[in-house]
Amino acid sequence: MKTRTQFLPLAALAGLAIATGSAGASTTLTGVVPTATNSAVPADHGSNALATPTIALNWAGNWDQYTNWDGRGDAYQIENASVASPIEIVLTPDPSYAVNLVSFDLDEWVGGGDTSLNWTISGGTSGTLASGTWDDFSIANDPTDAGGRSTIRPNVTGADREALTLSFSQTSGSGTYLAMDNLTFDQVLPAPDTTPPTVLDIIDDKSGGPILDTETVVYTVTFSEVMNATTVDASDFENVGSPAATIDSVTATGNPVVFEVTVSPESGAGTLQLQIKSGADIQDPTGNALLTTPLIADSEVIVISVYMGLTLEISPNGRNFDFSWFSGTDKYYDLLSSTDLATPPSTWPVYEDGVTLYENIVPSGLTGGWTVQSSVPCNDPRRFFVLREKDLEGRILRVLSWNIWSADANYAKINEVIQTTGADVIGFQELGRVGSVVSSLETATGEDWHSHGMIISRFPIIGTSGLGALIQITPEQTAWVFNVHFAPYPYQPYDLRDGRLAQNEAVVVAAAESVRGGQVDSLVTAITNNGAMDAGVPVFVTGDFNEPSHLDWTQEAADATARPYDLKVEYPTSKKMTTLGLGDAFRTVWPDEVARTGYTWTPGTPPPNVGATEVHDRIDFVYYWGTGVTAIDAVTVGIDDTNPNTDIAITRYPSDHRAVLGTFFLPEASE
């Protein structure tokens, strides 16, 4: 690769010492005390003047320059860098160049306890390029030992024109300051891209169908790299099923490697399977043509049925009956019944068999298809039934809980997760740049998004109350959303694994209560005091609770595992949530804690790097409350779709937590 040395003009040299690398191609920034007192590092510290061919630097967060009060006075202070509020340096290259971050030094030198420091290098396109944990306590608080510093040598290079973020967050210790010095970097001219792009997958939004011939299908087409959007159009796609289909549109998404293709089948029964045409003129930004050999089509062949109107089929099932019908997309149903045909069917009441009221029946998946109500009792000698179809618009809410692991600058991945899941409301944890994420999301979707704290919503926020935000879903429908991030340590599953806790349920419960009891009590108070439940307003809670659920640590689960430290534990945090009346969305949809574990901790730190002794668990939750509010689906989002704990896989997933998505049916405001 061709390299370019960075030169700093004299105006930029205040407070810097510059050492040239051995090859003369790198720039090293070394802190120098500019005054007799500590001073904040300016955001543009070390950047060149405009129009010069150099890397621009932006120092974000509580950076200080050390003074000689600590006996050293020649480095940059990393001050109170928490997981929730990391401090960063963003390095932006010249156009057509890439940043090469070579190395930096770390040291700890102000007392308060041993401190571990996580560092991460990431880019908006590349994701996490390198990361690690520094905990060399042997050289702590030793201002005279200049040679005792640890040199970190990631030597990673970002993509063409990609800004790299070097992020630091303190994970343990209290009141301790650390130092970063000798930041060495340069920029390189990337080698020409000659690799042809490929199609990774084509996925339909109907879960493989079946569908009616009156419906449209939206396919998500994922390429291996960023594509030139102007070369991707409807003429590049075809239906390889029969009969023919119309390619209605091809739309770029917020993720430059993902496109949406909308297809309408022609009238009549048949099949639908989208494929890119052989020899399609699709290119990446450097002009490499898409490799269309072998051809890739949607892995699901959708069966198309002829729409014949809404028809209810009734068949005997022993002494009971099965009711079945072909549901439309985004529709839900009431089963009406009467013993008297003299009254209009539209006036018939919803059927009730003494146990079940057959109203607000939501088809699985929301995409249409056969819906069956099995073994419905009916003891009347003469009874008539009809279906009432209703529109789901404004009745479905998708709530995502996601600990982002401080990957704030990775806007492309954040947008991809939100758009892939269709989340309406997101409760983030460890997100620092909420405003920037909202702006990026608005640019990607063309929609208005709203925020309060770390809650982001596609619906307007019309009120706030401490941890919560009141969202306006429709003019008639509102909901409260609360978001929390509870203390991570001490973490009882680790303490059980490492022998620091006795294998005794009461001991574990007491330990968990001592760590998070006050936090969950404050959450319960916030929910009950804001009046939402008294007013009948639906309530949703998202969060990284950093504690497993009593619904998971059951005797059945303990008996099913070979881990010696597994036992039944009624963890207090989740117990308090369900005692308040909230439902755990994932465990409501998937009640078998052995067959469907749904672990959110951890896909890797960073993914997919998982330690051999890691304790996997479900510690991220979406809770819900409300009369008529129904959890109809719950899935996890992670990096590896071959892992049974990942339902939706995202390439280069940036977080050490899987996200959890709950899909809810909301009653009409008057119900």
Descriptive report:
The chain folds into 4 domains: about 1-190, Sandwich (Jelly Rolls); about 200-305, Sandwich (Immunoglobulin-like); about 315-390; about 395-490 and about 515-550 and about 570-665, Deoxyribonuclease I, Chain A. The chain is about 10% helix and about 35% strand. α1 crosses α2 (about 435-445) and α4 packs parallel to α7.
SSE-based structural type = mainly beta
Major sheet: size, sense and barrel closure?
Answer: 10 strands, antiparallel
Indicate the low-confidence ranges by residue numbers.
1-24, 49-53, 139-147
CATH architecture of the largest domain: 4-Layer Sandwich
Helicity level = 10-25%
Q: Could you please say which CATH topology of the largest domain applies here? A: Deoxyribonuclease I, Chain A
Rounded average pLDDT = 84
- What best-fitting shape do the alpha-carbon axes yield? globular
CATH class of the largest domain: Alpha Beta
Terminal residue distance: 66 Å
Q: Helix count, per DSSP?
A: 8
Strand content: 35-45%
Number of domains: 4
- The counted number of beta strands is 42
The radius of gyration computed from the alpha-carbon positions, rounded to a whole number of angstroms, is 29 Å
CATH-defined superfamily of the largest domain: Endonuclease/exonuclease/phosphatase
